Amino acid sequence: MKCDWGLASVPRIPLHKGLSLRQVLEENDLLAEFLKQHRTDIGSKYLPSSLAGGHQGLEPLANFLETEYFGTISIGTPPQEFTVVFDTGSSDFWVPSVFCNSHACKAHRRYDPYLSSTFQDTRKTLSIYYSDGRMQGFLGYDTLKISDLVATQQAFGLSTQELGGIFTHATFDGVLGLAYPSLSSSEATPVFDHMMKEGLVSQGLFSIYLSRRSNESVITFGAINDSHYTSPIHWMPVTQAMYWQIAVDEITVDGRVVACGGGCQAILDTGTSLIAGPSPDIVGIQYLIGATKSRNGLYQVDCRKLQRLPDVVFHIDGVKYPLTATTYTNENGGICYSGFEGDSGGQWILGVVFIREYYSIFDRAHQRVGLAKAV
Predict the structure, then answer these.
(1) Active site residue 302
(2) Does the pLDDT value for residue 3 go beyond 90?
(3) Among 4, 142, 249, 269, which one carries the catalytic annotation?
(4) What is the pLDDT of residues 233-282, one digit of tens each?
(5) pLDDT over 60 (residue 53)
(6) What is the pTM (predicted TM-score) of this model?
(7) For the chain, where are the alpha helices, taking DSSP H only?
(8) Fewer C-beta neighbours within 10 Å, C or N terminus of the chain?
């Protein structure tokens, strides 16, 4: 999960950067009440559970505050349901367990291995450290069901302790990492790798469509959904098989290079809400888009001026990916917040703000990423 969670085991890029709207609610002591009123029971009511044809799985994603997108999975026999973030910025898969008495666990659904006839214990411990907390537990195997895809003996973590306020306030139960195996804290086989090994998907790729609308976002395993994009798909190689990392040529505003002048690396991360980058570069971009820091430390933009603000353009593999002011800001209660955030350890992270605009295809079979203008 991410909202300023760092990755596991060794110092890495934070898992979930900058949930600015969440921070606003917390600042005004409104978050707890908001969560009570807006918890979403997601499921098949949003979208069909599968695409036509075999070896494809389509899972609808709920949209929380345009910062978190999560779907429903089930574990065990009979199945126990959980909501998880499908996170391209991490590789671990875990859910709360009945052995966890932390307040965060009690606020969410907890997996009970005694209720599953297919559970297997590995007797291996698991620790995942985040910048705002940590999860501790152990590894097990059980049947995982996502949409119509059923993976037997899938490794996953069962939390026994969850420390940190971010876990308590999370609107979902757990995290399902979709990055490379080299990023796994436990050395367990990540979910999509396991799907490919079991031949559950017809293609070794998955695609993600994130929408501002409440019931249209979806992750598709094993297929590309033509209805979610308009422009041609541009493919670029993964530059390091850990995160979904790609090379960026430069970032411009009004035709002037404002960051990545000599090229830089960036990761596509569905578990990060904003676009994060080195603080000096981000401060420069905030200035150019007219964003000013408010009392709560967040950058705000005058909503009345959005139509006059410049595009921020990411040049990737020779192709321009512009973001307009209406796409790089989030509006809440009449206030527009910048979708850029600094201090990411020097790494550019293209989070939800970017992925909402560009349908993203994660192709493990060919070690590449595809981007196309989202509908």
Answers:
(1) no
(2) no
(3) 269
(4) 999 999 999 999 999 999 999 999 999 999 999 999 998 889 999 999 99
(5) no
(6) 0.86
(7) 20-27, 31-38, 103-106, 165-169, 191-197, 279-288, 352-355
(8) C
Contact 117, 79 (CB under 8 A): no
Q: Which residue has the tokens 């321009």?
A: 320
CATH number of 20-224: 2.40.70.10
Say if 20-224 and 227-373 have the same CATH topology. Answer: yes
Beta-bridge partners for 57: 221
- The total of other beta-carbon atoms located within 10 Å of residue 203's CB is 18
Say which of 4, 87, 142, 363 is annotated catalytic. 87
- CA-wise closest residue to 157 among 205, 101, 95: 95
Model confidence pLDDT, tens digit, residues 119-146: 999 989 999 886 667 889 999 999 999 9
Q: Which one is predicted more confidently, 54 or 112?
A: 112
Average pLDDT taken over every residue of the chain? 85
Tokens at residue 95, please?
A: 């859910």
Name the CATH code of domain 227-373 (choices 3.30.750.24, 2.40.70.10, 3.30.160.270, 3.30.70.1350).
2.40.70.10
Tokens of 218: 């979806």
Whether residue 132 lies in the annotated active site: no
**Sign of the CA dihedral with 343 first, then 349, 353, and 354 last:** positive
37 DSSP 8-state letter: H
Instruction: Report which secondary-structure segment, H or E, holds 359.
Output: strand 358-363
Q: How far is residue 111's CA from residue 109's CA, in Å, rounded to a whole number?
A: 7
80-87 and 174-177 strand pairing:
parallel
